[in-house]
Design brief:
The structure is a homodimer. Chain A has 10 helices and 16 strands. Chain A has helices at 28-36, 55-63, 126-135, 148-153, 155-162, 172-179, 184-192, 233-248, 253-271, 284-298, and strands at residues 3-6, 10-16, 19-20, 24-26, 43-49, 66-73, 79-85, 92-98, 118-121, 141-144, 167-171, 198-202, 208-212, 216-219, 302-303, 309-310. In chain A, the strands form 3 sheets. Chain A has a 9-stranded mixed beta sheet, sandwiched between helices. In chain A, strands 2, 3, 4, 7 and 8 form a 5-stranded mixed beta sheet that branches. Chain A is globular and about 65 Å long. At the A-B interface, helix 7, strand 14, helix 9, helix 10 and strand 15 of A face helix 7, strand 14, helix 9, helix 10 and strand 15 of B.
Chain lengths: 314, 314
């Protein structure tokens, strides 16, 4: 099934206690595609780069099955983001954001992108997200990210968007700010009351939640003794989640749970490496092995009063 | 199998955004027993109370199968603890600690307590914990809690204690402080390198980890839309964990995982209620139902390349 992502294509300069990058290819659409392409191709990407963007980085994605037809090349500077993480990687400070050509970005879908069945609206202006949604003829599943900036500055448009999407995928602080409720499960119910059938709440080092009217599913983060760079983990999660669904064409509850685990696996690969290029070396077999490791991490048998076990391990 | 707990028996005055208690029965040994007695009796309790303690509260525990022979009644004031939680319950401030008779407490085990097979050393001075360990003839499993105060003030004795216990059960900040490592999985390895065969790291609203040389197991916290009072959740967790093991007499890895889930279930009952008396109304059937709900919360099937599923749901 066709999978389309709209989002930022950026140059990231990130400092962590373990190293730093300067003008490294990044952005939500790039992390999403790099992770997702391991599981499903083609991934169609819509975004904008300036005349200074290292085009070779995108050609490397193309070689892995990413369709770049929707990447606009505009005169001017590419979107740049500079940030520094705390010693324990739990918080980060944005040092600089330069929108460059992103400031005037109006996503236009190439004609052969308009039949996309799986659509991920990365974190951009909700007005642009609505504009993209208008250009897609009959999507099967629309998932959407946002951030505190849009929650504060474009709340009405964001609420309009919520009425037209299937899954809102945000982090816990965004869910709290959007709903005005610090309890994450009440925040999830608030979101479900405003349009989406499901919400995925990303909790960083504590994993992610899938909440629908029918069920709550929790996947922890993968236990890592070495974490190098959290940048892009949320978008890699989204890429793994959506690519698994597009590849299996199965929106059943059990497969949505599996998609969460594929997302968490991709998030774990993201933080183990600096920048997006780490995904070049990750194979589908690596991903399957990590998914099995997640099973081992959380599996337990229920023993009922008769001594019989339900549930069976991998 | 006989289960013994040594710890504080306190009067708690706790304020949360949802209400407050004044001189309510609490303390690590009390929360442990109240939770554990739902799964296993007798639970033998060793501690001290002052002449002002509401003895009826302990008699209520006795009626549920807690052996009070080891509770010393000393002349003077009972241990009192006063605290206030933040609006989102994520942090708390200790407003007052009055040790009272606890200051001169030297646990003495009644003769029929010395054959205890399962022993939980609640958070008290590691010197006293070592003293209790000396009085128990041949324990099968010794688990131990501690806190930042002892990590800072009695580190050498704590390290000595670690060489003689099977499980260190601490929260994440204590594990970080003890090991000097902010990465929780490296902190767990540090603990395993200092004596214990296993460590249980409690993560509050994010659940708990069991780490041994062979395996890592994660149980999330139960999704609760209403949390009233986090006090005692960690001790209730310990009570559920140890009582499940004592009741099943099974230390196999699958049963240790189940014990973690019983612990998490007890922690969830603790935070849904104010104080310890909420456990009076919890039945073994309630606990089993919550354990099954944990299974539903984390369960997913792995589908391998051939399309066959491994793992089976509850």
């Amino acid at each position: 099934m066709s999978l389309l992502v709209v989002g930022s294509i950026a140059l990231d300069s990130v400092a962590t206690p373990f190293g730093q990058t300067a003008d490294a290819p990044g952005g939500s659409a790039v992390f999403f595609s790099a992770a997702g392409a391991i599981l499903h191709t083609p991934i169609r990407i819509v975004g904008v780069v300036g005349s200074d963007y290292p085009w070779g980085a995108l050609k490397a994605l193309e070689a892995r099955g990413v369709d770049l037809t929707g990447v606009e090349r505009a005169a001017g500077e590419s979107f740049r983001w500079k940030a520094k993480y705390s010693y324990d990687l739990s918080t980060r400070e944005t040092l600089e954001t330069r929108l460059g050509v992103f400031a005037d970005f109006h996503p236009k879908l190439p004609p052969h992108f308009r039949d996309a069945r799986f659509l991920f609206l990365g974190n951009i202006d909700p007005e642009l997200q609505l504009g993209v949604l208008d250009q897609v003829t009959s999507p099967t599943l629309v998932a959407c990210d946002t951030m505190n900036y849009w929650i504060q500055s474009k709340r009405d448009l964001l609420l309009e968007l919520l009425r037209h999407i299937d899954i809102l995928m945000v982090n816990d602080s965004e869910a709290r700010e959007l709903s005005g409720d610090w309890n994450i499960y009440r925040a999830a119910r608030w979101i479900l009351g405003h349009g989406p059938k499901m919400t995925v709440i990303k909790q960083g080092e504590h994993g992610a939640l899938l909440v629908s009217d029918a069920t709550t599913f929790k996947v922890p983060a993968y236990p890592l003794q070495e974490v190098f760079d959290p940048t892009g983990a949320g978008d890699a999660f989204a890429g793994g989640f959506m690519a698994h669904l597009a590849s299996t064409e199965d929106l059943s509850p059990p497969n949505l749970r599996r998609a969460m685990v594929y997302g968490a696996a991709m998030g774990s690969f993201a933080v183990e490496r600096f920048g997006v290029q780490g995904f070049d070396a990750v194979t589908p077999a690596d991903v399957r092995a990590r998914v099995r490791a997640f099973k081992e991490l959380v599996h337990f048998d229920v023993v009922d009063g008769t001594g019989a076990a339900s549930g069976r391990g991998p």
